Amino acid sequence: MQELTLVMAQLDPLVGDIAGNAARAIEAVREARIEHRADVVVFPELFLTGYPPEDLLLRASMESRLQKARDTMAKKIARDVLVIIGYPGVRDGKRFNLAGVLYNGEWRAEYAKQALPNYQVFDEQRYFEPGQSPLVFEHQGVKLGLLICEDLWVDAPIEAAKEAGADVLVTLNASPFHQEKPSERLALFERRARAVNRPIVYVNTIGGQDELVFDGGSSVIDADGSVKVLAPYWQAGLMPVRFVREESGAFTPEAGEIEETVSPEESLYCALVTGLRDYVNKSGFKGVVLGLSGGIDSALSLAIAVDALGPQRVQAVMMPYHYTADISKEDAAQQAEMLGVEYQVMPIAPMVEAFTETLAESFAGAERDTTEENLQSRCRGVLLMAISNKKGLMVLTTGNKSEMAVGYATLYGDMVGGYNAIKDVYKSWVYKLARWRNTQSPAVPERVITRPPSAELAPDQQDSDSLPDYDVLDAILGRYIEGDLSAEAIIAEGFSEADVYQVVKLVDRCEYKRRQAPVGVRVTARGFGRDRRYPIVNGWQPGD
Question: Looking at 79-134, which runs of residues are DSSP E strands?
């Protein structure tokens, strides 16, 4: 019986570390050969540079560094294993997103990605020229048709590979996660496999890169659309699949490991942990410090940080003022002890009073307003940044997407920091995640989840004093931000006209704040970052 063992290398490269990524590939091939007796090893898209390399692609030394790495791979990788790996390359003066084929110490062929995405977080037309031709490479009697990520989402590249004689379609990917994306992908693969009557091998990257996070989920789909192999999400590793030739002449994947379906809460939580962990570790920080207020956002952020880095690398600071409730102090202390992190209490009253005294003459005759509230937040920001500077810890910001959307945050106050794990998580999902996390082990005090949310910057303050209830707010925001609906269209769905216009105007007005916010994990189809670009200064009005 003719057969072939293919190993999917679901790994986490470091963007820009070309020599290091090549070394990771060499070691992975060695392991795949020993552990799985691999005939073919396939790596993700742009693995040698990491994804996305952005303007690193424009560096003059990029091509020479890649050539050196590829020469090293050709010398060190066993000659009896076929390797397919992604990297960029300049050919005849044009830059392409390539999949290279290495065998027997020689680079045998290259495939150039044909469908270059230019939407949401993708900006590939800025850097690459589209390929024009299919590539089918025969190995041990199996004709492998190469594709790269977006090629699988459009018709022409797949049909061209089939027409060129491909027995199996092999696609290299760097497909970032957002909620619902894993199920969307699998549904697409099943349709595509049935449409061309060919098995599909999908190899995805894993790990975090700035605001993007990659969930893995590498898979093999048979020609009838059935899932034969599904690698674990959120876990790096090598996943083998064996192909055998049937009497009909078709190559068929044998059934292998299939990852169990997880809840939406678990999937989202893993995305946040992965994004934070990789940002901190790849950036070289010793750990993180955050303000622990006794509220739900900082409580969830603390749990994520501990799960990402371990309690020994996390410091929590309670910074109470006159309006901080006793139960907030109690709950913060309880959670810090529960999770085993370093915990300090630093009252900010002396700092606030010093600022107030200094500003008294300038503020003479003015009524008290949000200025005094913002002073409290900015004093806390100063303390956190001082700890960061002294200890080499990154400040973890704790504002959720609902707050970031409407500007319910203070510049240079609670917005200070280097990263925000929950930046793209709506408030209603913050509660869901906290409840889910507590099903795994105690992490967030129950009272933090059940009490009404408050910034505690004024007496008896609650978020609902100035905003619609979060269930309503998030429903409006989802339609306006992800759905791109107009205010009028949202009102037509039954929402209060006053609520909708208030929310829409706040979102539009606060673009300047979001531009100054720390980067954070993107987990929705449209986060505040590279896939939502609005001018700060503009005359657009709701209803236009």
Answer: 82-91, 94-103, 106-112
Length of the chain: 544
With contact defined as beta carbons under 8 Å apart, do 269 and 275 qualify?
A: no
What is the separation of C-alpha 514 from the centre of its chain, rounded to a whole number of angstroms? Answer: 18
Token pair in block for residue 466: 């100035």
Q: Are 41 and 35 contacting, i.e. CB atoms less than 8 angstroms apart?
A: no
Question: Which pairing describes strands 200-203 and 206-209: parallel, antiparallel, or unpaired?
Answer: unpaired
CA distance 422 to 400: 5
| Distance in angstroms (rounded) separating the CA atoms of residues 416 and 370 | 18
DSSP state, residue 233:
B
Closest CA to 430 of 410, 415, 444, 413: 444
- Rounded distance between C-alpha atoms, residue 517 and residue 519, angstroms: 7
SS3 call for 523: coil
Tell which residue, 210, 213, 234, has the closest CA to residue 282.
Answer: 210
**pTM of the predicted structure, to 2 decimals:** 0.94
- With residues binned 3-state (H G I as helix, E B as strand, rest as coil), the percentages for the chain, rounded to 5, are 40, 20, 40
Backbone angles phi, psi at 107, to 5 degrees: -85, 110
CA 137 to chain centre: 33
d(CA 519, CA 481): 18
Long-range CB contacts (within 8 A, 24+) of 502-505: 502/468, 503/405, 503/406, 503/468, 503/473, 503/476, 503/477, 504/476, 504/480, 504/542, 505/542
Q: How many CA atoms lie within 13 A of 239 on its CB side?
A: 31
* Residues acting as catalytic residues: 45, 113, 149
CA distance 332 to 33: 50
Per-residue pLDDT of the chain (544 residues; tens, 9 = 90+): 688 999 999 999 999 999 999 999 999 999 999 999 999 999 999 999 999 999 999 999 999 999 999 999 999 998 899 999 999 999 999 999 999 999 999 999 999 999 999 888 888 999 999 999 999 999 998 999 999 999 999 999 999 999 999 999 999 999 999 999 999 999 999 999 999 999 999 999 999 999 999 999 999 999 999 999 999 999 999 999 999 988 777 889 999 989 888 899 999 999 999 999 999 999 999 999 999 999 999 999 999 999 999 999 999 999 999 988 999 999 999 999 999 999 999 999 999 999 999 999 999 999 988 898 899 999 999 999 999 999 999 999 999 999 999 999 999 999 999 999 999 999 999 999 999 999 999 999 999 999 887 766 667 666 666 788 999 999 999 999 999 999 999 999 999 999 999 999 999 999 999 999 999 999 999 999 888 888 888 888 876 5
If we measure between CA atoms, which residue out of 104, 114, 65, 63 comes closest to residue 83? 104
The token pair at 458 is 């004024």
